[in-house]
């Protein structure tokens, strides 16, 4: 009886510890969700600030262009020219400050995104590992099945090829006679000789002299 009571007490303590761990995990999960919501809100605020800064930069660019045009128009008036130059320098400095602020906000945004990624990875890492292990096991099983199927197909093809083709080819007695016909072609070349005969005609003139005899 004492042994049974001790075993029951051990089981009860183990269950209590498990419940306690589960409660702690739920609390951690809730805290992580709250942290995620806060990070998302910060991201939204930073995005709004970035949009505002971009609008301000555009307005400053428009003002600088206008002042530049006014400077070209008011070259003769020295005082106004100097004042506009100072204003232009101030606007340029303000623009530089806004650009620096914009860069800082972008860096903060990147940091927050990295934090979110880390949070998601930490939150999902265990589940992902289990899922990846299961997927790898399934893929290995599928690969093994495919390899077995390929081996069976190769063996089947090999035996079929060997027993059907070779055995049938070498056991059937077929004689094939090949007749070669030789064709002789005789080429006759006829040479035609043309003879040109020149006929020379000689004309002989005979002069006959008649003598009259007077009796």
Detailed description of the structure:
It is a single chain. The protein is mainly alpha-helical. It has a domain at 36-171. Helix content is 77%, strand content 0%. Helix 1 (2-73) crosses helix 2. The N and C termini lie far apart (212 Å). Residues 173-191, 197-202 and 204-215 have low confidence and may be disordered.
- The low-confidence runs, each spanning 5 or more residues with pLDDT under 50, are 173-191, 197-202, 204-215
Q: Major sheet: size, sense and barrel closure?
A: none
- Measured between the Cα atoms of the first and last residue, the distance is 212 Å
Helix/strand order: HH
- The shape, in one word, is elongated
Helical/strand content category: mainly alpha
Radius of gyration computed on alpha carbons: 57 Å
Strand content: under 5%
Helix content: over 70%
Overall pLDDT confidence? 67
- DSSP summary: helix tally: 2
Number of strands: 0
Descriptive terms for the model:
single chain; about 220 residues; about 0% strand; disordered C terminus; transmembrane; membrane; transmembrane helix
In short:
The chain has two helices and no strands.
What is the topology?
Layout: H1 2-73, H2 78-171
């Amino acid at each position: 009886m004492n042994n049974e009571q001790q075993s029951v007490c051990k089981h009860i303590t183990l269950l209590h510890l498990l419940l306690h761990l589960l409660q702690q995990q739920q609390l951690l999960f809730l805290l992580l969700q709250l942290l995620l919501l806060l990070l998302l809100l910060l991201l939204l605020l930073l995005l709004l600030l970035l949009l505002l800064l971009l609008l301000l930069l555009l307005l400053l660019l428009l003002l600088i262009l206008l002042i530049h045009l006014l400077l070209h128009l008011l070259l003769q008036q020295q005082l106004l020219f100097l004042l506009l130059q100072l204003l232009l320098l101030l606007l340029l400095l303000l623009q530089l400050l806004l650009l620096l602020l914009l860069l800082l906000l972008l860096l903060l945004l990147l940091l927050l995104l990295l934090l979110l990624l880390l949070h998601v990875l930490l939150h999902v890492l265990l589940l992902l590992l289990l899922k990846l292990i299961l997927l790898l096991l399934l893929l290995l099983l599928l690969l093994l099945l495919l390899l077995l199927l390929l081996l069976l197909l190769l063996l089947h093809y090999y035996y079929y090829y060997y027993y059907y083709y070779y055995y049938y080819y070498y056991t059937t007695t077929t004689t094939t006679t090949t007749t070669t016909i030789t064709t002789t072609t005789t080429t006759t070349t006829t040479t035609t000789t043309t003879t040109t005969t020149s006929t020379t005609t000689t004309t002989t003139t005979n002069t006959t002299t008649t003598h009259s005899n007077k009796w």
